[in-house]
From TrEMBL:
InterPro entries: Histidine_triad_CS (IPR019808), Histidine_triad_HIT (IPR001310), HIT-like (IPR011146), HIT-like_sf (IPR036265). It comes from Amazona collaria. Belongs to the HINT family. The active site is at residue 115. A motif (Histidine triad motif) lies at residues 113-117. It catalyses: adenosine 5'-phosphoramidate + H2O = NH4(+) + AMP. It comes from the Eukaryota. One of its GO terms (molecular function) is catalytic activity. Pfam families: HIT. This is HIT domain-containing protein.
Amino acid sequence: EVDKAHRASAAGEDAGGQPTIFSKIIARSVPATILYEDDKCLVFRDVAPQAPVHFLVIPKRPIPRISHVGPQDTELLGHLLVVAARTAQAEGLADGYRLVINDGKHGAQSVYHLHIHVLGGRQLGWPPG
């Protein structure tokens, strides 16, 4: 993941205006196992799961990084967290789970479209990094 993050950073955060894999999933030009969708966000299973349950919550409006959000994003960010919690419950994660947002090269962000990883289904270790 760190190597992918470094390659993504070297390619530029917006990849020259090219759509990310996540915007292609939103447009349905790339398949995904969708768990939930509404007018603001999309939830789908991670294709390379790092836990027995691993899904992503993404806004439909592309925001490259969590460090690029502003006051206008307050409602959307809250919505993403509520959707993450409800989907975790629907996925049977009653014993707990972890939310992860990677930001930038040092945060191991490999896709420059804000996304929340939800991981669970086993005991997760600490510290995570």
